[in-house]
Amino acid sequence: MADLLSGADPAPVEIVNPTSNHPLLLTGDHAGNAVPVAFGDLSLPAGEIDRHIGWDIGVAGLARALARKLEATAVLARYTRLLIDPNRPLGEADSIPARSDGTPIKANQNLSEEQRAVRADALYWPYHRAIDMQIGRIQRLGHVPVLLALHSFTPALNLGARPRPWHVGVLYGSDARFADRLLDAFRARDGLVVGDNEPYSGMTHGYGLKVHGIAHGIPHAELEIRQDLIGSKEGQERWADVLAEVLVPLLGETALRQIEHH
Question: Where is pLDDT greater, at 256 or 161?
Answer without folding.
Answer: 256
